[in-house]
């Protein structure tokens, strides 16, 4: 092991700031409460602060250029001048207003599509390549590099999304043109790298996570070509080709690429990566980036364990300098545990957010470079010991109850349908919504006042009841067939349940960016999950008491609660999903007993949880479907179970959707312009289905005509007796006026179609 040295490194840092300063600056700019100059100044301050902090934590290789005003994919697209025509930009250097128009849309131009970043809850803006010819509008990494060098004297490591991943995640081109398109981008990348080389940058991090996501081996031809060009054209710069979120798909090919360093995820891809390292070795002239601190979860690292893992890795490594780093960018974890004052000390000590993770990297690097800090290690061991003594016992009681729960409805769908049609007597093409109504500033401020003790529980509950009443009245007036209570009492569809279930902790300030300025505060599963008391019955029953129309109960499903929380990492994920499912089955029973017999169990995260590697899909889908069925099967045949999913692209998992055995599923379709309808057309789906007929992410109010067209299109492939009419998703981010107008048009569209088709009762 002589001759190996280690450098502490980071791959990306959260943008948000300790108190969501980033989000607040953006939202003030958008509301014209801030001028552009002040905005830029404040953002720069934040950006430099983040870099100073990383340096102070002992990180030697600090990423620059990962900061953004919205999203790093959007930045890359804009850097390459990929601006869809509808934004009419003639700027040489793209203005901030064009940049935000692409992200958020304008009255005239719909926003660019947004989709999930691999298997995370982060969303990126999808570049639309179409007819645009890429050009370099600005060398963003260079700007970032020079900024920190001049302002702070820090020699940063510029970060770029690699050309392979950038193209794989873009749309607007045919698969066959991948190679020729790539040729258009490579010279631009070369230019960026050359300018960085001239400016004195030593290492560049090029992110290529696509190489771990079931990457087709034949496409390595392109990867090889791209990196050969970089090596030839920019010989004096060192490239760290960074992969993450999974093990490398084709290890031998990856490590023999002509680059100077290879970054691997040894948290999510431990087994495969270590096996490959052992059998294939690691090239003598390269540096390995060892991603050993989990960039996706919040648990403190067991330094002893990490140290022995590192010893194992080291035993396969050639001499030279290697990097110790998080498994991915720290974008996916909150900033710091510092401001958490309410967590139990045992739990708080067991957590590690971005800042604490940097400290772990620093300690481990010191340990490796033979400067072990015994006290640190001892303290770390104590944390683990105390945690193990206090929490994390899998209870046999829960396992026993779970084993008794049915995972199959008592009757098949065809027979349930008769019961349900008789019970509900809905018109054909029933209209409904997905659950939430506008979470206005008023609602959030009221909750804040309650949280801070400025409002009593009674005052808060009365406020919520008034909101429910207001919106039941609105829904009746609009003429919807199945109503909802509106979810006003919920801060978030996952955090809300986390707060009410046993085994979850929630933070005060553990925010993570979800998309643009929107954030989530994922709860932390630290113990057995268990049902304590009904969570949604009171509000739902109250809503039902106000109307003759059915009110649909509204729950978040087990897979989504799991995927959008920070989960235990010491028991299999599916076991946690089953525990949540058991808890939800009690909630469903409680709703049923309270007379709520139409219940929606949302699973928007089912799709994003799909493993990045295709060969692991079946195993995941099996347990995910099983969890949903455990939660929803223990009901009467006449009880109608709905589910909801957004983010389209279901064509490759229709079988799993069918296996959920939900009576009604509502899915997002409007942004994919009917592509999804085709998927259902070819797959033959025999249960009830609500295809979203308008995009809720945009303030635009859809016309009756366009919605009728969407419905007509669906009716060409789906029998009217199975079809529901609803928006794409919940309406919490919309305002009241937009919501009411859009829903009125939606109901009118449904009525006109019923009329013209002479469709009456189901
Ligand atoms: N967990 C989760 N993941 C998800 C989704 C989701 O709904 N939940 N949906 C998709 C992503 N979509 C999203 C849509 C909206 C928001 C969103 O609106 N987030 C809010 C925070 C929601 C929240 O927790 N609100 C708290 C209040 C938080 C807050 O900032 N309060 C202020 C006061 C209120 C104010 O000034 O507005 C304070 O305490 O100072 C509440 O309602 O209680 C935001 O960023 O602004 C997030 C994700 C996919 N992933
Ligand atoms: C992201 S899916 C959201 C479903 C939820 N019931 C809502 O309407 O907000
Ligand atoms: Zn949704």
On the 0 to 100 scale, the average pLDDT is 94
The kinds of small molecule bound in this structure are: ligand 39S, methionine, zinc ion
Overall CATH architecture of the largest domain: Alpha-Beta Barrel
Under CATH at level 1, the class of the largest domain stands as Alpha Beta
Strand order of the largest sheet: 1-10-9-8-7-6-5-2
Q: Tell me the overall shape.
A: globular
Looking at the structure, the CATH topology of the largest domain is: TIM Barrel
Strand content: 5-15%
Report the radius of gyration as a whole number of Å.
26 Å
Q: What structural class results from the helix and strand content? A: alpha/beta
* Poorly predicted regions: none
Please bin the fraction of helical residues: 40-55%
Main sheet specs: 8 strands, parallel
Number of separate helices: 27
Total tally of structural domains: 2
Roughly how many Å apart are the termini? 75 Å
Structure description:
With 762 residues, the chain is α/β, with parallel strands linked by helices. The chain has 2 domains: 4-390, TIM Barrel (Alpha-Beta Barrel), CATH 3.20.20; 422-757, TIM Barrel (Alpha-Beta Barrel). It is 43% helix and 12% strand. The protein is built from 27 helices and 20 strands. The strands form 5 sheets. The protein has an 8-stranded parallel sheet with strand order 1-10-9-8-7-6-5-2. It has a 6-stranded parallel sheet with strand order 15-16-17-18-19-20. The mean pLDDT is 94. Residues 121, 439, 441, 444-445, 447-448, 491-494, 514-515, 518-521, 564, 733 line the site of ligand 39S.
């Amino acid at each position: 092991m002589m001759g190996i040295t280690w450098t502490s490194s980071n791959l990306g840092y959260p943008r948000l700031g300790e108190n969501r300063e980033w989000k607040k600056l953006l939202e003030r700019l958008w509301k014209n409460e801030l001028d552009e100059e002040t905005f830029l100044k404040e953002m720069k301050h934040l950006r430099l602060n983040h870099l100073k902090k990383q340096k102070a934590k002992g990180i030697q290789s600090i990423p620059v250029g990962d900061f953004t005003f919205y999203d790093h994919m959007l930045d890359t697209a804009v850097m390459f001048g990929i601006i869809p025509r509808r934004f009419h930009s003639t700027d040489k250097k793209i203005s901030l207003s064009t940049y935000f128009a692409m992200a958020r849309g304008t009255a005239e131009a719909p926003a660019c599509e947004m989709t999930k970043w691999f298997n995370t809850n982060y969303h990126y803006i999808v570049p639309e390549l179409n007819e645009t010819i890429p050009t370099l509008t600005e060398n963003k990494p260079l700007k970032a590099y020079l900024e920190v060098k001049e302002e702070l004297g820090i020699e940063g490591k510029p970060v770029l999304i690699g050309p392979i991943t950038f193209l794989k995640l873009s749309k607007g081109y045919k698969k066959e043109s991948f190679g020729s398109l790539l040729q258009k981008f490579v010279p631009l990348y070369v230019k960026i790298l050359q300018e960085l080389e001239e400016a004195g940058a030593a290492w560049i991090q090029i992110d290529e996570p696509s190489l771990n996501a079931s990457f087709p081996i034949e496409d390595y031809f392109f990867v090889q070509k791209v990196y050969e060009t970089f090596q030839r054209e920019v010989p004096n710069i060192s490239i760290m080709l960074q992969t993450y979120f999974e093990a490398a798909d084709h290890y031998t090919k990856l490590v023999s690429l002509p680059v100077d360093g290879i970054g691997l995820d040894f948290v999510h891809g431990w087994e495969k990566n270590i096996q490959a390292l052992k059998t294939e070795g690691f090239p003598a002239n390269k540096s390995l980036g060892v991603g050993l601190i989990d960039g996706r979860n919040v648990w403190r690292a067991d330094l002893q364990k990490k140290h022995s893992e590192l010893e194992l890795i080291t035993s396969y490594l050639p001499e030279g300098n290697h990097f110790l780093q998080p498994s991915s960018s720290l974008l996916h974890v909150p900033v710091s545990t510092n401001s958490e004052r309410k967590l139990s000390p045992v739990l708080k000590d067991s957590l590690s957010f971005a800042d604490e993770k940097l400290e772990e990297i620093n300690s481990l690097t010191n340990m490796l470079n033979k400067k072990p800090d015994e006290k640190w290690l001892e303290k770390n061991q104590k944390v683990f010991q105390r945690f193990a003594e206090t929490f994390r016992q899998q209870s046999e009681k829960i396992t026993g109850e779970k084993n008794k729960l049915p995972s199959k409805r008592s009757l098949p769908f065809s027979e349930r349908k008769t019961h349900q049609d008789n019970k509900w007597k809905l018109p054909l093409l029933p209209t409904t919504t997905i659950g939430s109504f506008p979470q206005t500033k008023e609602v959030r401020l009221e909750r804040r006042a309650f949280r801070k003790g400025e409002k009593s529980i009674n005052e808060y509950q009365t406020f919520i009841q008034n909101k429910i009443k207001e919106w039941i009245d609105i829904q009746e007036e609009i003429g919807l067939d199945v109503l909802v209570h509106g979810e006003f009492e919920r801060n978030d569809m996952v955090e809300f349940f986390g707060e009410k279930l046993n085994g979850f902790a929630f933070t005060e300030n553990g925010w993570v960016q979800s998309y643009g300025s929107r954030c989530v505060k994922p709860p932390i599963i630290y113990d057995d999950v268990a049902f304590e008391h009904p969570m949604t019955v009171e509000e739902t029953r109250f809503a039902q008491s106000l109307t003759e129309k059915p009110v649909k109960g509204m729950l978040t499903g087990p897979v989504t609660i799991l995927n959008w929380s920070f989960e235990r990492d010491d028991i299999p994920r599916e076991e946690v999903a089953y525990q949540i499912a058991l808890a939800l089955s009690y909630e469903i029973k409680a709703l049923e007993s309270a007379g709520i017999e139409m219940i929606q169990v949302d699973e928007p995260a089912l799709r994003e949880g799909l493993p990045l590697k295709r060969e692991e899909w079946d195993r995941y889908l099996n347990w995910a479907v099983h969890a949903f069925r455990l939660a929803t099967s223990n009901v009467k045949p006449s009880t109608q179970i709905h589910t909801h999913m957004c983010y389209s692209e279901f064509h490759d998992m229709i079988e799993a959707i069918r296996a959920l055995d939900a009576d009604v599923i509502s899915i997002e379709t409007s942004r994919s312009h009917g592509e999804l309808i085709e998927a259902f057309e070819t797959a033959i789906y025999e249960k009830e289905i609500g295809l979203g007929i308008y995009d809720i992410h945009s303030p635009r109010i859809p016309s009756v005509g366009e919605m009728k067209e969407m419905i007509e299109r669906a009716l060409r492939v789906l029998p009217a007796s199975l079809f529901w009419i609803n928006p794409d998703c919940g309406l919490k981010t919309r305002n009241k006026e937009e919501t009411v107008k859009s829903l009125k048009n939606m109901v009118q569209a449904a009525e006109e179609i019923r009329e013209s088709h002479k469709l009456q009762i189901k």
